[in-house]
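CHAIN AND CONFORMATION:
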Amino acid sequence: MRLDHSGLYNFLLRYTTARGLMIENLELWLVRHGETTRSVAREIAGWSDPPLTERGRRQARALRPKLNGELFDGVWCSDLRRAKTTAALAWGEAAPDPRLREFNFGEMEEAPFEAIDPGLAAQAMRFRDFHAPGGENNTVFRARLEDFLGDLPPGRHLLFVHGGVIRSLVQDLGIDRFVATCSVVGVDWSAQRLLFVDEPENAEPVFEG
């Protein structure tokens, strides 16, 4: 993990001035993992642990030039294999945390998306307020993500996570959809403002969970 220890840089990064007050700043770079065997099969992954495909590994390696030279106060990943492998290929060392896991889709996990009841599938695609049978609801999901974010020190953090994680965090900031695999989304979390969305060229958003 490469950390920036420049005093002036950290001061400017971590604090902004508003009405004479110093406010701690938290910036997130959210990376969706690469393609997996379940996304190829159009199956819902959720908390199951499929590996990356060879294409997914290439996608992850292609991120490295984009991230090289960037400075982060912390680098984190979901504890599921697809996120950990993406982190290793795209960056290097990342600290795993189970709170960054994908949404728990319960009884829907490992099922082909086309086999899901159409009404339930439509709710899952809308995602907001979704409650998976035998799994999580969006309120519980968002709460564990915010619990993780609440423990982060101020600064700039790189997170290797999942499509549902990114959607939950940015759905009120202008992107209410699943971004493509190995997309990078920047967020000024303190200001609740979207900074950028970098999706691979010719990539199609994948619902996998």
The radius of gyration is 17 Å. The chain has one domain: 26-198. The helical segments are 7-14, 37-40, 54-67, 81-90, 118-126, 138-150, 163-170.
